[in-house]
Design goal:
Elements lengths: L1 H20 L2 E5 L18 H13 L3 E5 L2 H10 L4 E5 L3 H6 E2 L6 E10 L17 E5 L6 H8 L5 E5 L2 H9 L5 E5 H10 L6 E18 L5 H16 L2 H7 L4
Parallel strand pairs: 1-2, 1-3, 6-7, 6-8
Antiparallel strand pairs: 3-9, 4-9, 5-8, 5-9
Helix pairs in contact: 2-8
Length: about 250
């Protein structure tokens, strides 16, 4: 009987060790310069990719990053096909269903982009966007100010796309009036589209929101989250965060 119990205990600890070494699947989406999918010429890259990769390397946890549109990535996390997704904003619904580290990966300023010759002027009052065609990313969260207006039914003409690049392409084609996006991401995408002289930021920052990696409650434990937080803290303290940020000037 004792031998049987010992064997069962050993089997449990072996399975636990195997689970810790299992390769985790992290989902991301094209969001340059923070996250960019791999190509034939280069591996996945970007500020957030570098931060996450360094953290997992220090934790000695194997992982792979796969790229999909945000809506599909969230669906994969919800169904248990993925262990985490980045970068994501916190909101009450997500915090109730998933696990978040205490420390964000980065912070972003969300602004309104319009065509250079547009008569639309964002003055900081979100109600001024009520009747324009506004490009947004499917299932994205832009911070509490935008979310409160969305829940109140303020916006009459939201134009939903599966990529930020798609939103800017529609803006350039005059199929939408304005786009809400992270400033650094929007400016990077406009450079990629050779359109940095055709689109401008209108008005002040709408909201500033921290962005996180979000984990599945089905496959990730609170202890893992504490370890991840400690690793991110160490990366701040030893200058790794600053070194990574210098590679991606805003």
């Amino acid at each position: 009987m004792r031998l049987l119990l010992l064997m069962l205990a050993l089997g449990f600890f072996c399975r636990a060790a195997d689970a810790q070494q299992r390769e985790l699947t992290l989902v991301s989406f094209d969001y340059p310069p923070l996250m960019e999918a791999a190509s034939a010429q280069r591996p996945a890259s970007g500020m957030a990719v570098d931060i996450v990769s360094e953290a997992f390397q220090r934790m000695k946890v194997p992982m792979r990053i796969v790229f999909y549109p945000l809506a599909r990535g969230l669906a994969m996390l919800e169904s248990g096909q993925a262990d985490g997704i980045f970068t994501i904003k916190k909101n009450p619904e997500r915090e109730a269903r998933f696990l978040f580290p205490t420390r964000p990966l980065l912070s972003q300023d969300y602004v309104i982009f319009v065509r250079k010759n547009s008569k639309i002027v964002f003055d900081g009052d979100i109600t001024s966007l009520e009747n324009i065609s506004l490009g947004v990313l499917n299932r994205a969260y832009y911070g509490p100010v935008f979310e409160a207006a969305l829940q109140a039914g303020l916006f009459k003409k939201l134009d939903i796309a599966n990529s930020h690049k798609g939103n800017f392409q529609k803006l350039l084609a005059q199929r939408t009036d304005a786009v809400i996006c992270s400033r650094i991401v929007g400016l990077t995408l406009l450079r990629q589209l050779n359109a940095e002289n055709e689109v401008v930021v209108s008005g002040p920052v709408l909201d500033t929101a921290p962005s996180y990696i979000m984990f599945s409650r089905q496959t990730i434990t609170p202890e893992f989250i504490r370890q991840f937080d400690a690793t991110i803290a160490a990366m701040h303290e030893d200058g790794t965060f600053a070194s990574i940020a210098k590679k991606y000037p805003q």
